[in-house]
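Blinded run. Sample ID left blank on purpose so nobody reads anything into the name before looking at the predicted structure. Input follows.
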Amino acid sequence: MLVRILQKAAFIKPILNKTSEAIFSLEPVTFRYRKEIDPAGTSQFGLIAEEVAKVNPTLVLPDKEGKPYTVRYDAVNAMLLNEFLKAHRKMEQQEATIAQLKADGATQQAVISDLKKRLETVVARLDEQNSKIERVNDRLELRQPAPRLAVSNP
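Blinded prediction complete.
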């Protein structure tokens, strides 16, 4: 039946993001119908039409006097689905970002590991060069003649 109604619609467009965000203002309640309506007093779940009308009047149907009478749960469900799909898309984007960050982190870790090895090689070469310089300095000190004292005789 909904398909037939949609086929007769003048235009069909997606629910605007801000429109469906109105459902975040709704406050679900539990209630029991009066005994004459439900003698068993079964606990019910729903929304208060007057409160829903304050958030978005198109989500309620009015009574003969124009006052909010009942909630259009089919419309609320469509808005819930829209918000779910938005959250789902956002979650998928976040998962892709996390996967990319993990891959980038692994690449960076490999680069860091390579740089660490190279740095260790450079430090080892510097230590070797320092050792050679110290040996050359020691040899130079041994080759230098001992200082002579000049004594003058009067």
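Unblinding after everyone has recorded impressions. The longest strand covers residues 29-32.
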